[in-house]
Amino acid sequence: EQLSAASQPQASIMGEHQPSVVEAAVTGAGVGAIIGAAQGAWQAKPTHSPSTAAVLAGSVRTIGIQAGTLGGVAAVYQMTENALTDHHGSNPKTSAMAGCAAGSLVGIAGKSAVSALAGCAMLGTFAGALKAFGGFTPEKRVQSRHE
Questions:
Q1: What string of DSSP letters covers 85-140?
Q2: Is there a contact between 97 and 126 (Cβ–Cβ < 8 Å)?
Q3: CA 119 and chain centroid, separation
Q4: How far is Cα 28 from Cα 76, in angstroms, rounded to an integer?
Q5: What is the pLDDT of residues 16-29, one digit of tens each?
Q6: What's 50's DSSP letter?
Q7: Considering the entire predicted model, what is its pTM?
Q8: CA geometry: angle at 82 spanning 9 and 70, to 5°?
């Protein structure tokens, strides 16, 4: 039997064969929460009130900010990477462009063109280099050399 066109999978930026944007966002938010918890614990000295509630509220706010920021950065990176890979194939340039888009998000959120440019340059360079040199794991480096 033939499948109707509506039931066949469509390529999308959500990731048909690539990692999904939702997975990336959840992973980024989880890492952001961990970083936010460490930052909140480090800065746990209350400045205005000696109450535990003020310390806890500040820590929770820090966790939320870090989780939201890194979740957004991860989602933008993965969405851009998926879209570019669908059109141009997987290569260091697509990873660098996705890294640039994601890195600039932090500066844009902070309304700082300099931070957006710096984030673009740093995360774009890092992502492109990781793709070019095979990532963190030796298995991926061996596979990418033989492809």
A1: HHHH-S-HHHHHHHHHHHHHHHHHHTT-HHHHHHHHHHHHHHHHHHHHHT-SSHHH
A2: no
A3: 12
A4: 11
A5: 556 789 999 999 99
A6: -
A7: 0.73
A8: 125
